[in-house]
Amino acid sequence: MAAQRGEGDAVVATPRNPADAEVRERARAIPEAAVARLAVYLRVLSGMVDQGVTTISSEELSSAAGVNSAKLRKDLSYIGSYGTRGVGYDVEVLVSHIERILGLTRKHSVAVVGIGNLGHALANYGGFPSRGFPVAALFDIDPDLTGVPVGGIPVNHIDDIATVCAEREVSIGVIATPPQAAQAVCDRLVSAGVQCILNFAPVVLQVPDNVEVRKVDLAVEMQILSFHVARRADEAAGEVVNGVGVDGVVIRP
Amino acid sequence: MAAQRGEGDAVVATPRNPADAEVRERARAIPEAAVARLAVYLRVLSGMVDQGVTTISSEELSSAAGVNSAKLRKDLSYIGSYGTRGVGYDVEVLVSHIERILGLTRKHSVAVVGIGNLGHALANYGGFPSRGFPVAALFDIDPDLTGVPVGGIPVNHIDDIATVCAEREVSIGVIATPPQAAQAVCDRLVSAGVQCILNFAPVVLQVPDNVEVRKVDLAVEMQILSFHVARRADEAAGEVVNGVGVDGVVIRP
DNA sequence: CCGACTTTGTGCAAGCGTTCACAAGCGGTA
DNA sequence: TACCGCTTGTGAACGCTTGCACAAAGTCGG
Ligand SMILES: NC(=O)c1ccc[n+]([C@@H]2O[C@H](COP(=O)([O-])OP(=O)(O)OC[C@H]3O[C@@H](n4cnc5c(N)ncnc54)[C@H](O)[C@@H]3O)[C@@H](O)[C@H]2O)c1
Ligand SMILES: NC(=O)c1ccc[n+]([C@@H]2O[C@H](COP(=O)([O-])OP(=O)(O)OC[C@H]3O[C@@H](n4cnc5c(N)ncnc54)[C@H](O)[C@@H]3O)[C@@H](O)[C@H]2O)c1
């Protein structure tokens, strides 16, 4: 029974080696939420490098990343102490350390399965290769698509998934098939040795424990937004009657 | 008080009444994480309805949704007590209550801004309308696109965003423009009265407090996957020395 | 070299969210 | 009606995350 979202780790550790052990130790202890933020910091920092910024304080970086500065510093402390008190952080140093922790020193080839509306968009998207995630293979079940190049890469038939993934050392599989096909595709990716899956189909995938799945479910996102609209409407209807909301805050009409 | 579909949702113009107040109270207390899961339960339950299932236990539903059963029951308890002990939940009752809490009794019109690769995929996607999120407007800055129908809807020019959004009662704005344009587009959406934004551009948006933003950042998702690969690789390298990993689990060579 | 000033890194406490475990409640059965 | 087995609903414990507040550690001007 594998959980859909890879969370909850924090187990006991047993380091044995000299310097490597420390990195491992650190990596294991980083909360999932912090990892997601580190990726955001990395993006912001990359922008800073392009602008020629060499040094940045936790206050500046945190506001650019939309978090508070204490949280930012705590997050950075998980990966080590690379700041200079009274000055801030060296942008390039920070970038390289975050990249190391996120495992971005290695290239991660991506395979997209299901070259429909979404699959086309993903295959054409320039943002992946530029961040170290080259799209190395495309798969579809439609024979009319096989051989057709999309985003510069010819589509392979899904039946060749095992050999092609092995050949091109695919480490991340992206599922963009209809929901009915998703579990089967997932199983084939897993058989092909892919251990990381990004799933766009609105289904809960069952995978072995050694496979990491993350899902992107746009309908869920919309429903969360919808919930907030409803909540706000309710609050307004209920609390604005006397012009004052909870905590005595005045609500605009 | 049986709130069924189509009940025009008393929220806006109704006077205070105890049942509403209770719903309000409940809605406010639901943790964000639980809201996201409720949306998943809803999807699973919809599938159950289609299969003719009328009753379901927390155990069954939780495993179909990929969570543990205690969490599921706790989540459902946030919205009220609609199960029958010894039996389980009536699927349709549960569906209607979750829909009510998520605010899905109302339609939420969606506007997509930036009709490029991703925008096209979104506009063509049938999964939104079918879940109560009709795509009501499309916008782009490219004059060659204005008037061109995508997914059955003609693209409007971004300059008309305020009037068109008002006319079509857009309540959710989706940003699929290049990152450089995202903040400006966001500002225009907010000016147009849109209070919910789903952002695909890899930037942190600045919005007023009364606007809800959710972001979908695929590069971040990939980097989180990358982190787990790296962590696993490190663990294997470090722990496999004596052939035994954490928890005494033997790691494959 | 010193002292004022700035900013990091982190111990700690409070807040949330998750999980456990079990009493309460219900349907079925005799 | 009384009992039994099953499943819900939830209080309480636990553990992760956040935010505060401040000592430590560095810079810089004199
Ligand atoms: N289009 C969007 O914007 C969007 C948004 C959110 C979620 N999604 C989800 O993403 C998935 C894809 O959406 P889409 O709009 O691109 O659908 P689509 O129908 O346009 O494309 C699906 C593609 O998958 C291929 N396919 C079907 N079965 C397959 C199999 N067994 N193996 C390999 N390929 C197979 C089809 O040939 C087709 O090319 C769906 O699950 C959808 O719910 C799409
Ligand atoms: N394509 C993907 O699969 C993908 C994946 C992840 C994230 N994204 C992000 O989504 C966004 C869109 O990606 P894309 O691949 O569709 O890009 P794209 O270049 O294909 O499309 C962008 C569209 O936005 C329009 N546009 C530009 N400025 C605008 C403005 N000010 N107002 C309105 N429209 C404007 C352009 O005319 C173009 O049609 C980007 O921010 C990208 O980083 C895309």
TrEMBL record, chains A, B:
Keyword flag Membrane: no
Protein name (Swiss-Prot/TrEMBL): Redox-sensing transcriptional repressor Rex
UniProt function note: Modulates transcription in response to changes in cellular NADH/NAD(+) redox state.
Regions recorded as binding DNA: 40-79
SMART domains reported in the protein's UniProt record: CoA_binding
Keyword flag DNA-binding: yes
Encoding gene, per UniProt annotation: rex
Organism of provenance: Saccharothrix coeruleofusca
Subcellular locations according to the entry: Cytoplasm
Family: Belongs to the transcriptional regulatory Rex family.
Domain of life: Bacteria
GO biological-process terms attached to the record: negative regulation of DNA-templated transcription; response to redox state
Assembly: Homodimer.
Any GO CC annotation of this UniProt entry: cytoplasm
Any one Gene Ontology molecular-function term assigned to this protein's record: DNA binding
